[in-house]
Write a structure and sequence with these properties.
Chain lengths: 280, 168
Amino acid sequence: MKKNDEIEKLYGRFSKEMENIPLPSEDELMQMLDRHDAQGVRQVPFVPVRRRRTPWRYAVAAMVAGALFVFGWLLWPQGGSPSPMVAEQAESGEQKAESGRTTQDSIIPATIAEPEIIKPRQLASREAGNGERKAESEKPTADSAVRQEIVVPVVLPAEQLPALAETEPADTTAAPQPSAVDSTATSPKPEHEIDDYPERPTIKETEDIIKQENSQRALRKRKLSGKIKSHDKDGKSFIDKQKNEKDGVRVVTPKSTPPPSAPMPHYIPMGNGQNRIIWY
Amino acid sequence: MTHQEKQKAFVAMIKQHERLILKVCALYTNSCRSELSDLYQDAVCALWESYDSFKGQSKPSTWIYSVTRYTMIKSSRRHRLETTSISSVDVENIASEGNDSDVLDELRQAIAALPPDDRDVFVMWMEGFNPGEIGETLGLSYGTVATRITRIKIKLRRLLKDYKEVVR
């Protein structure tokens, strides 16, 4: 490897320049080393970093865990009943709703009607209608300004219902609601006879609907995949093709690709459910 | 061997290879001429600290080169982290250096553009180490070192050409 090129020359110039830089003599170097030794080996003070930091970490972790536990205990429902905080929130929400509602009540005192007996089923339907009623109650109308009634719903177990239904007075003040108990009826209907739902389709009707839907879905799928075409490549309609096939005329569509030269397997049915494979 | 004798032997060895230490200091750091003496002292201290580990199995120049190179790499990393402000004294120093540092700058620019492995090979080759010694120090085979030297030369020639064009 030759060294006589530009880079070597440049490095030579660089070396010459380095020789011009003054460097400490032997005595100076000895003094420097003595000074270095006098300073001693640089000792890094031993600090048990992990041991010092660990209690802090544990303390912070414990505090976070404690906070999470307390919040979890307050917010999580215990044994099905709402936790104290949730109950408080619910109460405050009710109070707020009441305070919002009684702006008109403060002008005209409200009368408290007798407790109405509501079955669990009715309660569900009533709750569904609560939204509409709330929206209506928010609108100030002439009637609502005159008189407002507070209805306190009471849910009773099913055993007490027939006995109470007999003694129930006719509620004329309450708004008409979809209730199963007819106040005009002489005797209340048993629970199993009450039917709030519309007529259900029979099993046959359901099957027909499912079949229809399935066929429609399959048709849609085939249309989307492009399997159903109105015309073939030659421009003949498929209806004509099917008709010809029914009449005994076999329609052969020419293949675009020539038959392969390599032998292909041909399956000939043997009659016993098995096929014989012949390669040609 | 007493401490005094050990110190004397060390100083004699350093004096023998002082220009090698200085060149490594200059090539591995972006320091100006005034800072070179400080870097040299740092390198000598580092060599003195690790002098006990030198068993004499390799050539003293190889050991000195390795320790100095490592110290300079560490120093340049430290410098990169520190933010230094240019004082009026530094400005005067730079102005007084004038055209003397042109060669140094030119070579530094070219060498700095090389990958670290290639830089080591090149500097050692230029300092007169043979490919076998270079390979022993850097953990490369003889053939690899020889190939790298040829490639580095081509690369440096191109870099220097570009540099000259930029200067002109």
